[in-house]
Design a protein that fits this description.
The chain is mostly helical. It contains 16 helices and five strands.
C-alpha cells in the first residue's frame, strides 16, 4: 500500500521515538501550524510520486518570490520528516527522497545586513525613558552591550504544567522562564546567566557595559558615586512592564520597542533582534579577538559569529590592504624609499611623496653644483663636471 505524505506527518507527531517530542513548547506550536499547512497542500501526495522536480516546485510555491523565511522553514521541515521516515520507520521511499535531497540545493535568503548601531541603541533608550518605559531601555542596553538574544533578556511564557524550563515564575496558568533575574547579578555587578538556546553560561562584568550601568543608575539600583556596586537588592525578573508589573509577552515587547524605535528615527527594516548583531559587529570593528567574540556570543563555531558581523565591507577591505602594505619590504614598493612614504602610500598620498623625492633630489644636485664652482676656483686644472651617482657612488670610482 502506497504511503501518503499525510500519514508520514501524523506518524512523526505521534511516534514516541520521534524528535517531535524533544522540541520546545514554542517551537512545537510554530511547527504544528507549519505541518498543518504542508498537510493541507500536499498531504494527499504519495511518497513514491515525490521526485526532485516535485520538491523544487513545492519550494518555489513557498518562496513565492521573496518569502525566504517561509521557504526555508518548509525545506527544513521536509528534511526532518523524511529523515524520521528513514531512521525510525525504515521506509524505502523516505530513504530515496532523502538521498535526492542530499544532492539538491535550494535558494537561500540574501545575507541580512541590518544591525542596531550604538547611536541607535542610545536613541531608543532615550526615547524609552522619555515615555516612561525604562524597562525597554534597560532591555535594549542588555541586548546591545551583553549581546543577549531577546528571549534571554525578556524571557518567555510557558504553560505552568510543562516540565520544560524548570519552575520559573508562576503567573496564573503560565510560568515565566529563561529571562534575566536579579539574582543572577551579584554585588560586584557580575552577571551570570545561562542562555536559552544553547544552555551555555554567560559571565559578564556589567561595570564594562556603560549603557546597562547608566540605566541601572536611573533605576536607583547602582551607586551613582564612588565604586560601582549594587545599592539595592531586588528579586524576580529584571525586565518587567511598568503597567502590569510582570515580564513582557514577546509580542507586546516588540510592539512597544517598534513604536519607540520609529520615534528615534530607526528604519523599520532594523529589528530588535538586530541588537545582538550590532554588538557583535562593534566588537569586530574594534578589532577584538575573534575567538573571544565567539565565546562572548556563546557560539560553538566562529563561522556562526561571523554571520552576525555586518560592518562596512569597504572599510574592512581598506584596513586589510593597509595592514598588508605596512608589512612589505621597501624594495617591493616601486619608487618608495622611506617609511614615511610607505604610510602615505597606504593613505593614498604617494603622489605627494614622489614630488617631495624629486624636490629633495633637485636640492642635492644644486648643492653639488655650488660645491663644483668653489672647487674650480681653487683648482682650475681639474675636471669638476661629473655629478654624484644617484645610488651614492662617484661615477669616477667605476673606472
Amino acid at each position: 500500500m502506497a504511503v501518503r505524505l499525510r500519514k508520514l506527518i501524523r506518524r512523526y507527531q505521534s511516534d514516541p521515538l520521534s524528535g517531535w517530542h524533544r522540541l520546545r513548547y514554542a517551537t512545537r506550536q510554530n511547527q504544528r501550524n507549519l505541518l498543518r499547512q504542508i498537510d493541507g497542500r500536499y498531504g494527499n501526495v504519495k511518497l513514491r510520486k515525490i521526485k526532485g522536480r516535485t520538491l523544487l516546485k513545492w519550494h518555489a510555491q513557498w518562496l513565492d518570490g521573496t518569502k525566504y523565511s517561509a521557504a526555508r522553514a518548509f525545506t527544513k521541515k521536509i528534511r526532518v520528516l523524511f529523515g524520521f521516515g528513514l531512521a525510525i520507520l525504515d521506509d524505502e521511499e523516505c530513504k530515496r527522497i532523502r538521498q535526492v535531497m542530499s544532492a539538491m540545493r535550494f535558494p537561500g535568503a540574501p545575507r541580512r545586513k541590518q544591525r542596531v548601531t550604538a547611536e541607535q541603541a542610545a536613541s531608543i533608550r532615550s526615547g524609552a525613558w522619555h515615555i516612561g518605559r525604562g524597562s525597554v531601555a534597560l532591555a535594549q542596553a542588555f541586548q546591545f552591550e551583553v549581546m543577549l538574544r531577546q528571549k534571554d533578556t525578556i524571557g518567555e511564557y510557558l504553560p505552568r504544567k510543562l516540565a520544560e524550563g524548570g519552575p520559573g515564575v508562576e503567573v496564573g496558568d503560565e510560568k515565566w522562564v529563561r529571562g534575566l533575574l536579579w539574582s543572577e547579578i551579584d554585588d560586584d555587578l557580575i552577571l551570570r546567566h545561562q542562555t536559552s538556546k544553547t544552555n551555555k553560561p554567560v559571565v559578564v562584568d556589567l561595570k564594562l557595559a556603560p549603557m546597562v550601568i547608566a540605566d541601572l543608575r536611573r533605576l536607583g539600583v547602582v551607586s551613582k558615586r564612588g565604586k560601582l556596586r549594587l545599592v539595592q537588592r531586588l528579586s524576580g525578573p529584571v525586565i518587567v512592564s511598568e503597567t502590569s508589573g510582570l515580564p513582557y509577552p514577546a509580542f507586546d515587547f516588540r510592539r512597544i520597542w517598534r513604536a519607540i524605535a520609529r520615534g528615534a528615527g530607526v528604519p523599520d527594516n532594523v529589528f530588535n533582534m538586530d541588537s545582538r548583531a550590532g554588538g557583535i559587529t562593534e566588537a569586530f570593528d574594534a578589532e577584538a579577538d575573534p575567538d573571544s567574540i565567539r565565546t562572548a556570543a556563546t557560539h560553538s563555531e566562529l563561522a556562526t559569529t561571523q554571520g552576525y558581523n555586518r560592518g562596512d565591507e569597504l572599510a574592512r577591505s581598506r584596513k586589510v590592504a593597509t595592514a598588508r602594505i605596512a608589512t612589505r619590504p621597501f624594495a617591493a614598493l616601486t619608487g618608495t624609499t622611506s617609511r614615511r612614504a610607505l604610510k602615505e602610500r597606504a593613505r593614498g598620498g604617494h603622489r605627494n611623496e614622489i614630488g617631495r623625492d624629486r624636490r629633495q633630489s633637485s636640492q642635492r644636485y644644486s648643492a653639488h653644483d655650488a660645491g663644483t664652482r668653489q672647487a674650480r676656483a681653487r683648482h682650475p686644472e681639474r675636471n669638476h663636471d661629473q655629478r654624484p651617482d644617484p645610488a651614492g657612488k662617484d661615477r669616477r670610482s667605476l673606472g
